[in-house]
Amino acid sequence: MLPEENKALMRRFMEEGLNKHNIALIDEYFAEGFVNHSPMLGQAPDREGLKKAFELYFESCPDLQFIIEDMIAEEDKVVLRVTTRGTNTGPLMGVPPTNRKFEFSTISIVHISNKRITERWNVQDTFGMLQQLDLISIKGMS
Asked: How confident is the model at residue 52 (pLDDT cuts 50, 70, 90)?
């Protein structure tokens, strides 16, 4: 696929899958042998683990939205800079809801082959999110 086609595939997945909380589309967009090089703690590094991670996020933050800020494609890889926003109204990894809003940034790199996502590398500001939810703090900082 051409880089522009890969970008369009990612845009569709973000809108139709993530922003509409349609986890079933993971099977459509991600290859059977998909490898997540950055799985959520306790999740398998495959499609099923990715589904479980998004299920947890959507259950804890029903208004969760992903905004693509930048997208760069070259050959078979797409790099995305995404802002994630939501409100924690459900339990998150065993922690009761905080009812706080949060926003954090993520940088993702995906490898696409035969119109399917085959690999994903992800770095997100989890620390910033936990601070905004008032789940962690640093002495001397407010």
From this structure: very high
What is the set of domains in the chain, with CATH numbers? 3-132 (3.10.450.50)
For the question of whether the overall pTM of this predicted structure is more than 0.85, the answer is yes
What distance in Å separates the CA atoms of residue 12 and residue 15, rounded to the nearest whole number? 5
Confidence (pLDDT) at 134: 87
- Whole-angstrom distance, CA of residue 82 vs CA of residue 10: 12
Distance CA 76, CA 81 (A): 17
Residue 57: CB atoms within 10 Å: 19
Using an 8 Å Cβ cutoff, are 7 and 77 in contact? Answer: no
pLDDT for res 2: 93
